[in-house]
Amino acid sequence: MLGSTIINHRQHVGLQKLSAMAGLSHSSLGPNKKFRIIQDDSSGESALVCLCFRIFENLELTCATGQLAFETIQAHQKVYHTGSGCLLFLAGAWSRAALECLQRGISIVHIISAMSEGMDICLDVCRKYSISFEVLGMEQLEKSTPSPDLGLQMSKEPVVEAAQASCNLKQTLNSSGQRKIKLSRHFYEAESKIVSTALQNPQPKLPDIAHIAEGLSHGCVNAKNLVVEVSRIQSKNYQQEIICSTFDVTKIMTCVLPGLPEEAACVIPGCIVLLSAEQASVAHHLREQLLKVALINGDLSGTYCHLGFKRPSGVQRVSEDTDLLHLNKEEAWMEKVVTILLNLEVNLILVSGLVSKSVIQRCSRHQILVVEKVKVSVLKALADSTGAVPVTYATQLSKHCVGAGVKIAIWRDLSSYERQPSTAVNISAGGNSELVTVILTSCVEGKLQALEDQFWGCAYRLHHALKDRALLPGSGVTEMLCIHHLQKLVEWDSAQTAKAETEANPYRGVVLHLMAEGLIDYISTVMVNTGKFSKVQARTAVSQQLQDFNKSVDIAAKFSQLFLEGEKEDSVVSSPMKSTEAPAAKVYDNLSVKQEAWSQALDLVFLVLQTDAEVITGIDKATDAAQENLMLL
Known about the structure:
The protein is an alpha+beta fold. It has two domains: about 15-195 and about 470-575 and about 585-630, GROEL, domain 1; about 270-305 and about 320-430, GroEL (3-Layer(bba) Sandwich). It is about 45% helix and about 10% strand. It has 20 helices and 14 strands. It has a six-stranded mixed β-sheet with strand order 6-11-10-7-8-9. Helix 4 (about 85-105) packs parallel to helix 19 and helix 8 runs antiparallel to helix 9 (about 220-235). The longest helix has 27 residues, at about 590-615. It is elongated and about 85 Å long. The two termini are about 30 Å apart.
């Protein structure tokens, strides 16, 4: 997994491994992602993936650092569905920075303190340079007279200089000079703090979905078009224009269909699911009828227990034939469930978990259609429209839990495209037009996972943008601003060399410089992935832009062109150098996603750094010095 990377076992092995594993993220950065082939050794099947999360998901991780890195990006991906490549890359870049600091004799306390301060500066830059929706709305109104600096609109609050920001941030440090950090592999979506006086407007002018989605597409044109179509269908029920409040990511499903060309991808109102031949015969029998529906939140089986269930301790079961006993219990449970369903006249069961083949077959005999692996959010949407109440166990069903008014329509027979006979049906309920299904198709079956990941990435970038009500300048501009502020603070520290001995952290300038180098490495790698730069050319271009920063405040327009020059005409964005009539489309990043990815990348480095220190030097909990070198998790 670590390739040709040489591990020096006399150094911090965890940081070295984290740096080596970060190499997996290089191909997944930027709009021009490279596909990789993953093969399942057990089944022999292969698939194309372009997310580093998918690559990690299919690796056999044998070290603790690898497991920790995977759990971190897995938790991030589960919440945000984008940004895992950035997280892993920066974790590797900043782990190399930490290693360099250790080799220079800088203590762990000073490394953590300075890097924490650098992160606070970067997060502060993100907040201050965020582009509010009000600014985006004004930008659309001013399209007839475009301004060259519209790509970098700031809030009305003035930006604090790097040195002043550093002084203000000291109040976030504890007595030992460390930022109080809570490390966690469990993520939650916190409300973003957007610094903008324009948010006080109770009814602001909002940009449309298409404009925001285009800026957040990051090269995924087809996925962006599907996202915009989802919003159009969801808003159609209200007979309004496509505005921000009508895009609901929780009411979206995806259905992948191999065998059809990618151009056949579409968005269908309702819930499209694939059924086997046996299930399809039941669907044909029930089509166009008003059905009664039961919703099961969990697996539909006699042995399923929800996560909070605890079996009684100290109980032993003695039996001469445990298999026969199990079959008898399963059969008794089956009879009980079928009796309940028939008495309640249930025609359709939607299950969020798994359903065994035997249960599906038994229900099919009684013309009861069972559908498994339905999203919990879809169950909730159907519950709201039908009056059904989701239950954990089928034996809990009663007449008060059963919903009504569901219809099944045969959408398409896919027997000629699938290796196994299947039929796609549309499950819909009156008044629930916001529930839509995105049909993803490809003649290459192994590419379907990548297409699905791209769609969800675009959908969730739009979702987080609407939640944040703000965006960040894209194309590396935000990273450039952070580098600029970090370098300014380094220069300020260098100018205060006479007072260095009195500083709480005399190594702050060195650490911040190495931290900025990690961001430069990130930007240059993205530029290399465009295919228009070598690594040396990319770093040279970044250095030149940083040198010119003080000469022109229009860093957004100038630096974005480094990414956009030479793009194909059918790309999501075109270079402004090609035409004087149509300016380049703006590229944006998510505020909350970038902040969380950066923070978790640094926290991962800190966790590995301290673990390495304990392994190498040991720890005496009785000493105060040991406590100062550790962060409480």
